[in-house]
C-alpha cells in the first residue's frame, strides 16, 4: 500500500515538472527570460504626430456624450467640450490623449478618464511625389517613420521612363534640404541608410530616364534607355546592330558640352555613352 502511494506521488511530481516545462516552451523567448513583474520594454518606433488639418475622433470610455469628431485647426488646436481649447498639433497620439484626459480630470468632469484618439483623415502630414511615377500626387504620411521607398510604393513606383536617381527637397531643422538618392543602392547590402525618412512638406522628384539616340545605318534607329556604364558597342547592340550598309569607321557621336555647344567626336567602341548623346552611323562607301 505504501509502495502504491509512493508511485502515485512520484507520477504527480513528474507530471508537474512536464507541465511546467511545456508551459515554459509555449511562452515567447523574452517571456521565459524575464523576471516576474518586470516591465515590458517600450517600442522604439516613433508615434505619428498630429498636424493641422488632421480629422480625429475623440472618445472617452463610458462617456458617449464626450465623443467628438473634429479637425485640428491651422494653429494646431481643437475645441473640446467642457475643457475648451486643447493644443494637439505636433503631439503624438498618446500625448494628445493624455492632454485631454488631464483636462477632464483637473476640471473634475471625469474622475478617471480613459481617452482614445483615432485619426480618421491624415491631412496635416503630407508629401508630394512628382515626375516619372505611375501615380503622381500628394500623399499622407500615415506613420512617423515613413521611408522613401514606402512613399514611392504608394505612388505606384517609378514609371518605365523614370530614372534611378530620385531628388528629395524639403526642410530639416528650419533649413532648406536637398538630397539625391540612387534607388538601386538602397537595396544593396548594408545600404538601407540611404532610404531617407520622409517628413511633412517634402517633395520627391523622379526625373526622366537618361536617353541615347541612334540613327543612320542601324537595324532599329531611335531613342533608347541609357543603362549604367553603357558603352557605344552596347548601345549599338540595343539598336539591333549595324545593317548591311553601316560601317564602324563612319560612327560619330554628337555630344553637348558644358558650354551648351555640340561637339562631334569619333569614339571607340568601349567608350562610355552619356545622357543625350546622338550616335550617327554612316553608310559604307564599298
Features:
286 residues, alpha+beta, wza like fold, Outer membrane lipoprotein wza fold like, five-stranded mixed β-sheet, 15 strands, 21% helix, rod-shaped, disordered N terminus, porin
Give structural notes.
With about 290 residues, this protein is an alpha+beta fold. It folds into 4 domains: about 30 residues; about 70 residues, wza like domain (wza like fold), CATH 3.30.1950; about 80 residues, Roll (Outer membrane lipoprotein wza fold like); about 70 residues, Outer membrane lipoprotein wza fold like. It is built from 6 helices and 15 strands. The strands form 4 sheets. The chain has a 5-stranded mixed sheet with strand order 7-6-10-8-9. A 5-stranded mixed sheet has the order 12-11-15-13-14, covered by helices on one side. The protein has a 3-stranded antiparallel sheet with strand order 2-1-5, with helices on one face. Strand 3 and strand 4 form a beta hairpin. The chain is rod-shaped and about 100 Å long. The N and C termini lie far apart (about 115 Å). The N terminus is likely disordered. One of its GO terms (cellular component) is cell outer membrane. GO terms for molecular function: polysaccharide transmembrane transporter activity; porin activity. It is a multi-pass membrane protein. It comes from Aquincola agrisoli.
